[in-house]
Specification:
The structure holds 2 protein chains of 2 kinds. By secondary structure, chain A is mainly α. Chain A is built from 13 helices and 2 strands. Chain A has a two-stranded antiparallel sheet. In chain B, the strands form 4 sheets. An 8-stranded mixed sheet of chain B has the order 4-3-5-2-6-7-1-8, sandwiched between helices. In chain B, strands 9-16-13-10-12-11 form a 6-stranded parallel sheet, with helices on both faces. Classes of the chains: A mainly alpha, B alpha/beta. The interface between A and B is large, with 78 and 97 residues. Chain A: Pfam families: DUF4187. Chain A: This is G-patch domain-containing protein.
């Protein structure tokens, strides 16, 4: 495309001019800066009012543009543009008509048709009978080639699918941006309401998480009193109100370990145990970090489906908060709002179940 | 020409007659009068009386009992087991029985009878057998035992897409039959023929059979034609299929077998009037396929990483990595080698031998891929393996045992031609699904394997085309059209090809041939065209060669043509680029790369005559001995063709100042359509004539100050556009030598047209001045 910039604005006058010039030219091949005397034809065809001085200036500028070496990028762009132009033009439309096309027409080819067997039994190949069959033949057996195969130039080492993946991401980003813009358009009042609700929900979530932590600590204290043991235990044995907390923590720990193993690079080979070295003893294995026994064992049922927990998690935040508060009261006679463990069942002195009651 | 073919036909008919008699006589011998025959010792002095001694056998053979096209597998096996070779009468060697044992284990062996039954029942047969089934070596032999070509005088031909395959398979089959290569079993490839009067089974390239058909339109020399590796869909195979389809209708005695290694054989069946199909399972194991979760940023990098990962973590087994070209392969080999050294030191990994494999690699280096994988570094250490980094020649044509892991980035270099810019180029392109499956299959040859595809499953499904485009859709058809014309195909438009090419490609081919004066305006073959088709060369080269005596330099043009028909003779190793370039400068001619080639060739011939060690000389001068000697061989073959067609061999005396000018002018007689003009003075950019493409001169040129006009041998399209192997020319020559093409009126408006106009006027003025004087 950049080629257009460097060409004279109107190539036609130059053409004629050169022919003009040719008549007076004696063996010189240069046409970069023609003498200003050859004015007659050009001025009449294009610009009536261009003075000889202006013309001379213009021509010099054009010549300079032509002789200036193109930058690599310009050149590459122009090369590509020319190739693409040439590749996108069917040869059948080019002028003058090719003799090749005439020969093919004599064999019974019509523009727009494909090559290949006729459906009717082939007549003896006298050219007159071929000429009669003007209709493009309907062909048995799928699509016929009408156009040459496109040339795609690959100039990098991108893997297959990278280009389309990139395009997909751009599309998605555009869609997301559109979505955001739509939301911004929603009314201002609605916006305030939404913000309030979102803030409230976030607060509930935070309080719920706090409640879970308290519940876990309380349970731990109680258990220590009972048995004096710590350690992982089946998730199912944990009350649903704070089971989610434990599960999330264990999952995070497992992910961290897996990533660690992976980042050890080729040590990841251990994930695909292959070679058994008979000379390797227990100590070697420990030293090489090959021992499969890690200190940390996750709960057995970590990956199992837990419908109870899923249902619980699906509840709105305020409901989950209410449940954990109730759980603390029931189990440990602890009021989440008073932050106090009452000595008896009655919980005397606590104003009520909800936060508002404690205001 | 016509007379000689007639003669040929008559003589073969006579021989047929003789053979019939002969077979009768042999049969009566079998009935019990063998003694009489034994007494009748062949007298070497009376050989001219016994004309058929050459064709028939004068020894007893189990084949005497055979009825042509009625044999059974059991009969053939019995003959194979006999102590004496049924084809030569000599005793079988020990080696023969050893090979025979392995042959009996091949998957096709089990279906020999089934094959024969089907073969007897039909004229055209489609045979599908995966690589490793033994079809290429065995099926032609099964046919041999059934067709009994020594009785009919009609040979069996088996085509191969590649020269190397034709040669190596012929050698293998000669061993299997316990005969000398070139006698009962031979091969014929371009510029090399190893067959003799005794030849019964002939392996040949598909292109070679096509060339033969130009003189023998009915392919009357053959009783059975086997097209092997038809799934590769080479240009010549496609044309042969279309021809054979026509011939089969006329010659009911001709049998045709289409052999394919892939499952799309149905297409062949449909094409050949629903021919029956026989499939033989290959010996393959399941291959597990892995995809990457994300597309790769750099497929070479990803490939190297994957190879190392496999080496670190997967059990014993060799690795095959597919990349696209020499440079990329050497780069990957180096990187893998370095990393493996680290892994051995740091991780106690096993050793790994890394071998490159590509077409231009010297044969002895290609052979290294068959070396055994290295042993473990110490006793009890991790076992070693080998890693082969290859172009797609390892996809179908080469079988390497022991491959268990395949790494497939999904690219290959493919030839592509577009008639709109007239550029034929090798471009890196995504492979097809069929190709990807073929690559994966390479992992399952010895035991269950794994294939790592360096693209996502989604990309495999959505971005890869189903089948690789057949070559006919990706080629310049000028040569093919010329061949077809010579083959007597009148109606090219309705020629029944399996995949007809784009109409524009055909139009361009006809147009080019017309400019070259090989076809007249009615599309009829001219005398020049007919002669050009006799040369196994592109039409432009052939025309240049035929017209060279007019420029008093046919010897030189013959040398240049031969040099252009072989791979690059210049060697430029990465380690000694500078020295190589200096050496090339010794041969440099300031006016052109063509002339430089010629200088190098003359120096090579000079070294040969002066009793030097030529190989050493070539090595010192960074020239490829292999390619120079094959150019020498090509020259000899072409010279013979020139002599039979009375193309005179002449030279301008070297002292004459026009020696090189004449050669430069002669180049234009063939290559006037490959000319570029400088865009503007001082610019490095050229514009190709008529196609108007911007090109640079390839940096490998020796021409230090190129003219405004150059002729080029090759248009190279990579990420840039180059013209390679150029020679300076004067535009006046164009108007003089190719006035039809350089008819100023036919040019579109632009710089080239105005430049040509100027030159025309100049020439005219000069002539007027001369006339006036």
């Amino acid at each position: 495309m950049s080629s257009l910039k460097h060409n004279p604005p109107n190539p036609e006058p130059r053409e004629e001019e050169e022919e003009e010039e040719e008549e007076e030219d004696y063996m010189t091949m240069s046409f970069a800066d023609p003498p200003p005397t050859t004015t007659t034809t050009t001025t009449t065809t294009t610009n009536q009012y261009e003075t000889s001085l202006q013309r001379r200036l213009r021509l010099r500028r054009e010549a300079e543009a032509r002789s200036r070496p193109k930058s690599k990028a310009e050149l590459a762009a122009e090369t590509d543009a020319r190739r693409e132009t040439a590749l996108s033009q069917s040869l059948f439309t080019s002028q003058p008509k090719s003799k090749g096309l005439a020969m093919m027409a004599r064999m019974g080819f019509t523009a727009g048709g494909a090559l290949g067997k006729k459906q009717q039994p082939q007549p003896s190949s006298s050219s007159s009978s071929c000429l009669l069959e003007q209709q493009p033949q309907s062909i048995s057996g799928g699509a016929r080639t009408l156009e040459p195969i496109r040339i795609e130039i690959k100039d990098g080492r991108e893997g297959i699918g990278l280009e389309s993946e990139r395009k997909r991401k751009v599309r998605e980003a555009a869609a997301a941006a559109g979505e955001r813009a739509k939301r911004a358009k929603a009314g201002e009042g609605e916006y305030r309401e939404r913000m309030r609700r979102e803030r409230e929900e976030a607060r509930w979530e935070g309080q719920f998480a706090g409640g879970q932590k308290v519940a876990e600590r309380m349970a731990g204290e109680k258990e220590e009193e009972d048995q004096g043991t710590v350690g992982s235990r089946p998730l199912r044995s944990i009350p649903v109100v704070w089971r989610g907390l434990v599960k999330a923590r264990e999952e995070a720990e497992r992910d961290r370990r897996m990533r660690y193993d992976l980042e050890q690079g080729l040590a990841a080979a251990r994930l695909l145990p292959t070679y058994d070295d008979p000379e390797e003893d227990e100590d070697d294995r420990k030293a090489l970090g090959k021992s499969a026994a890690t200190a940390y064992v996750t709960a057995d049922d970590l990956d199992e489906e837990d419908t109870e927990l899923d249902e619980f998690n699906a509840l709105p935040a305020d409901e989950r908060l209410r449940r954990v508060v109730e759980h603390l009261r029931d189990e440990y006679r602890y009021c989440f709002w008073c932050k106090f463990t009452y000595p008896d069942e009655e919980m005397e002195g606590c104003p009520g179940l909800t936060e508002e009651d404690h205001d | 020409m016509a007379d000689s073919t007639k003669n040929l036909k008559r003589s073969s008919a006579e021989r047929e007659g003789n053979n019939n008699q002969d077979s009768k006589r042999l049969k009566t011998n079998g009935d019990g009068s063998a003694n009489a025959k034994m007494d009748e010792k062949p007298n070497p002095y009376l050989a001219h009386y016994d004309e058929d001694a050459q064709d028939g056998f004068n020894f007893k053979s189990p084949l005497d009992q055979f009825e042509r096209q009625q044999t059974t597998a059991a009969q053939a096996s019995e003959a194979e087991d006999s102590d004496n070779n049924p084809w030569t009468g000599k005793p079988h060697s020990q080696q023969y029985f050893k090979i025979l044992k392995t042959r009996r284990d091949l998957p096709v062996q089990k279906q020999r009878q089934e094959f024969l039954d089907m073969y007897h029942s039909t004229q055209i047969l489609v045979f599908v057998g995966e690589t490793g089934s033994g079809k290429t070596t065995q099926i032609p032999q099964y046919v041999l035992y059934d067709e009994l070509p020594h009785l009919t005088g009609k040979l069996i031909a088996c085509t191969q897409p590649r020269r190397v395959a034709a040669m190596s398979v012929a050698q293998r089959v000669a061993n299997e039959l316990d005969v000398t290569l070139g006698e009962e079993v031979g091969y014929s490839i371009r510029f090399e023929n190893r067959t003799g009067p005794k030849t019964l089974l002939k392996y040949m390239t598909d292109g070679q059979l096509l060339r033969e058909a130009m003189h023998d339109h009915e392919m009357s020399r053959y009783g059975c034609i086997i097209l092997d590796e038809a799934h590769e869909r080479t240009l010549a195979t496609d044309i042969l299929m279309a021809l054979l389809k026509q011939i089969a209708a006329r010659r009911k005695d001709l049998k045709i077998i289409i052999m394919s290694a892939t499952l799309d054989a149905q297409k062949f069946q449909t094409y050949f009037y629903s021919a029956p199909l026989l499939a033989v399972p290959g010996r393959t194991h399941p291959v597990e396929i892995f995809y990457t979760p994300e597309p790769e940023r750099d497929y070479v990098e990803a490939a190297v990483r994957t190879v190392l990962q496999i080496h670190a973590s997967e059990p014993e087994g060799d690795i095959l990595l597919f990349l696209t070209g020499e440079e990329e392969i050497e780069d990957a080999c180096r990187r893998i080698g370095l990393e493996v050294d680290d892994m051995i030191r740091e991780l106690d990994a096993g050793p790994m031998a890394v071998y490159p494999l590509y077409g231009t690699l010297p044969p002895f280096q290609q052979q290294r891929i068959f070396d055994k994988a290295p042993d473990a570094l110490r006793k009890g250490g991790r076992p070693g393996r080998k890693c082969i980094v290859s172009t797609n020649i390892a996809e179908t044509s080469l079988t390497i045992d022991g491959i268990v892991y395949v790494v497939d980035p999904g690219f290959s270099k493919q030839k592509i031609y577009n008639p709109r810019t007239r550029v034929e180029s090798l471009l890196v392109s995504p492979i097809s699904k069929a190709s990807a499956q073929q690559r994966a299959g390479r992992a399952g040859r010895t035991r269950p394997g794994k294939c790592f595809r360096l693209y996502t499953e989604n990309a495999f499904k959505k971005e890869l085309i189903e089948q690789t485009y057949p070559e006919i859709l990706r080629s310049n058809l000028a040569n093919t059209v010329l061949e077809l014309k010579k083959l007597g195909v009148e109606d090219l438009v309705h020629f029944d090809l399996m995949d007809p090419p784009a109409p524009e490609t055909m139009m361009r081919a006809l147009e080019e041939l017309n400019y070259l004066a090989c076809l007249d305006d009615d599309g009829e073959l001219t005398t020049l065209g007919s002669m050009a088709s006799e040369f196994p060369l592109d039409p432009a080269l052939a025309v240049m060669l035929i017209s060279s005596p007019e420029f008093y330099c046919s010897n030189e043009i013959l040398s240049i043509t031969s040099l252009l028909s072989v791979p690059q003779i210049w060697v430029r190793p990465n380690t000694a680029r500078k020295r190589a370039d200096e050496m090339k400068q010794q041969f440099a001619h300031p006016d052109g790369d063509h002339l430089t080639l010629l200088n190098a060739y003359h120096a090579f011939k000079g070294a040969e005559q002066s009793d030097e060690d030529v190989k050493k000389w070539c090595h010192e001068h960074f020239l490829s001995y292999r390619h120079l000697s094959s150019a020498d061989n090509v020259r000899l073959q072409l010279k013979r063709i020139m002599e039979t067609h009375d193309v005179e061999l002449v030279s301008t005396p070297f002292q004459n100042k026009d020696y090189y000018t004449n050669i430069r002018r002669a180049l234009l007689a063939g290559f006037f359509m490959q000319v570029a003009m400088r865009e503007s003075s001082n610019s490095k950019v050229y514009k190709t004539v008529k196609d108007d493409q911007l090109v640079m001169i390839h940096p490998g040129t020796v021409v230090s100050s190129p003219y405004d006009w150059v002729v080029y041998n090759e248009f190279v399209l990579t990420t840039k556009q180059y013209v390679r192997t150029i020679t300076n020319i004067r535009p006046e020559w164009l108007l003089e030598i190719a006035p039809g093409y350089y008819d100023v009126d036919s040019f579109e408006k632009g710089e080239i047209k105005s430049a040509l106009t100027r030159i025309t006027d100049k020439v005219r003025r000069r002539q007027a001045m001369k006339g006036g004087r």
